[in-house]
Amino acid sequence: MLKRKKDVRQEKKRNKKVGLKPTQILVLGFLAVILLGSFLLNLPIASNNGENVGFINAFFTATSAVCVTGLVVVNTLEQWTLFGKTVIILLIQIGGLGFMTLATALFIIMGKKITLRERLIIQEALNQYSLSGMVRLTKNILIGTLVVEGIGAFFLALRFIPLYSDYGFGWGLYMSIFHSISAFCNAGFDLIGFNNLTPFQGDLLVNFVIMGLIVLGGLGFTVWLDLLKTTKKEIEKKFQWKHWFSSLTLHTKLVLVLTMVLILGGFFFFATVEWSNPYTLKNTGIKNKVLGALFQSVTSRTAGFNTIPLAQMKEASKFFTIILMFIGGSPAGTAGGVKTVTVGVIVLTVLSVIQGKPKTEVFRRSIPFDVIQKALAVIMISLGVVISVTMLLTLSENVSFMDAFFEATSAFGTVGLTLGITPNLSNFGKIIIAITMFIGRLGPVTMALAFSLKQRKHTGDIKLPEERVLVG
User: Fold this and answer.
1) Percent helix / strand / coil, the chain, rounded to 5
2) Residue (of 356, 303, 301) closest to 327 by Cα position
3) Contact predicate 176/157, CB 8 Å
């Protein structure tokens, strides 16, 4: 015990000498990966025409890949060689899991000790409250990711290998692996072309495999582990759904309920609004209409794939897509956005105020005030970023307000959906969107803490007198 305390003290002294906070290391680590990716993608060997694609285009693509967004300024299929495509999918994998997760895996393989500083960075990257079990959590994340992506690639191979048989067995397999990783990491990169997955609008296998990977990646790794642990305990006993659900953590319950509500709510909305739209769903048949509406609901919350032409959707659908993109997936996963639980906490707090309750309660539990404060901070900072970027795009680009608003939200939510303006962005616009993707992937609070001045520690012993102000 004394030895452990001594190690902690020594590690803290080393941290003070270096002078970098875990949030700063996280930001710099992601930036380093992006710059390395930019260098590799700008090499002549990465482009089919044998020429440099240009540093800004390479930087934009690398940022989009590492930030698992999917916005592209060049056609991924036509522009990049096999080398370039492989660099992109590796950047997606690193960005989806987090560079510290992969670095930890390498340390474990090499037999290197994981220091307190590295555990703190992993904790920040995975959005965890406790330092205990960080290495074990990292191992489980890596194993789970490889298993899920492998299963996804297997099922996609059943379709892609026969479909692309003219290009050889290897290309169909590569397509399967590429799209499985891209879907699980909620990246939205594809090798179909600028039409994305619209050629597969009615394909049950491709649709449900991609949607399944998107949802699993968006649930969050902590939810995975809680579901597996609770289910294992219930199977050892007499399995009962009610007891199983009640045994889950509050976080997992909120994630599952909110995810289901958003998917079903989005499905009914898109089906209702786009059902009679001749440019999207009207002339596609019942099966394609249902699949199209369901896929749009799932992908809008951060995945970036699409099976219907987004630019042809009605204005109401575009705005609803913006809302879903802003919300995003769930914490500690591969998805972006402000996160489902963040929005859920704010909505529950509003309901508590309306009902006159002194605390925010759900599932017979109360949510701590500091969690509510953080959720409010995330929402407000995120709104500020989206509004600012939208204004900048309307000033720098020759686009409509809806196109700019859609693009800004898609970049911040690391979604990758676009109404078609991304390839035509000016260099200034590309840089703005790249920065927005970076902020969205790291999280607005993480970025704020990384670049903030030294914070004072508040012990809570001194309380200032309260005075009411008028609100509402």
Assistant:
1) 70, 0, 30
2) 301
3) yes
| pTM for the structure as a whole | 0.88
Each of the 472 residues of the chain gets a pLDDT tens digit; together they read 444 445 545 545 554 445 566 677 778 888 899 999 999 999 999 999 999 999 999 999 999 999 989 899 999 999 999 999 999 999 999 888 875 566 666 666 666 666 666 566 565 555 556 656 666 777 788 888 899 999 999 999 999 999 998 888 899 999 999 999 999 999 989 998 777 888 898 899 999 999 999 999 888 888 888 898 898 888 888 778 888 898 999 999 999 999 999 999 999 999 999 999 999 999 888 999 999 999 999 999 888 899 999 999 999 999 999 999 999 988 877 888 899 999 999 999 999 999 988 899 999 899 999 889 989 999 999 999 999 999 999 999 999 999 999 999 999 999 999 998 999 999 999 999 999 999 988 877 666 666 665 555 555 567 788 888 877 7
Contact 207, 198 (CB under 8 A): no
Identify the burial level of 111 via C-beta atoms within 10 angstroms of its C-beta, where 0-12 means exposed, 13-18 middle and 19 or more buried. exposed
Q: Specify if 466 maps to a domain.
A: no
How far from each other are the two terminal CA atoms of the chain, in whole angstroms? Answer: 53
Nearest to 34 by CA among 42, 22, 44: 42
Which amino acid makes up residue 43? L
| Structural domain boundaries, residue 334 | 19-450
Domain count, the chain: 1
Residue 172 CA to residue 178 CA, distance in Å, equals 10
Q: Does residue 158 lie within any of the structural domains?
A: yes
- The neighbour count for residue 28, using CB atoms within 10 Å, is 12
Instruction: Answer whether residue 253 is part of any domain.
Output: yes
Residue 106 lies in a domain: yes
